[in-house]
Amino acid sequence: MKILHAIGGAAIGAASLGALTLKLFQTQMVKEIPSPKNFEETCKAIEKVIPQFSNSGWGFPFEKWNFYKVFEDRNIDVPNIRKLTVYFVCNANLAARVINTNNAMAGIMPCSWAVMEKADGKTYISKMNIGLMAKMFTGEIKKAMLEVEKTEKEMFKRIFS
C-alpha cells in the first residue's frame, strides 16, 4: 500500500512539475521589455547599437518593417498599439552553427525585435526569450543560443543607456 501511495505521489508531483514548466514556457517564451525611451528614441538606439557589434558578426540582414502600416493598409484595428516596427537582428556565423546542427531551426531566424508604442504612450521591445529557449536544447544549439543571450544583454544595456 505504501508503494502505491509513493508511486501515486511521484506521478502527481511529476505532473504538477510538468504543468508548471509548461506554464512558465507559455508565459515567458516571449519577453516584453519596457523601454525607458520613447518609440523614436528606442528605434534610433537600436539602429545605432546593433552596428556596434558588427565586428563580431551582428547586423540587420534586411530593412526594418513598419508592421503597423500593414494593419492600417488593411483597415485592421489594433487598439492597444499606436506604432509597431520590427527589426531583424542576425549573426550569420551563430545562425550557421545552429542550422548546420538542425536545418529546421532556419524557421526561427533571424531574431526579430518588435518595438511598439502602446495606447498608454509607453514603449516596449518584444522579443523571443533566447535564454529560456536555450534550456530546451543541448550541444551546439544551446551554446549558440547562450552566446546570443549574452550579446543581447549587452546590446540592451547600450540601447537603454
Outline the structure in words.
Helix content is 51%, strand content 21%. It has 161 residues and is α+β, with helices and mostly antiparallel strands. Helix 2 packs across helix 6 (139-160) and helix 4 (92-101) runs antiparallel to helix 6 (139-160). It is globular and about 60 Å long.
Please trace the helix and strand order, writing H or E for each element: HEHEEHEHEEHH
Helix content: 40-55%
* CATH class category: Alpha Beta
Subunit organisation of the chains:
single chain
The dominant shape is globular
Q: How does the major sheet shape up?
A: 6 strands, antiparallel
Structure at a glance:
This protein has helices at 2-28, 39-49, 67-73, 92-101, 130-134, 139-160; strands at residues 30-34, 58-59, 65-66, 81-91, 111-118, 123-128. Helix 2 crosses helix 6 (139-160) and helix 4 (92-101) packs antiparallel against helix 6.
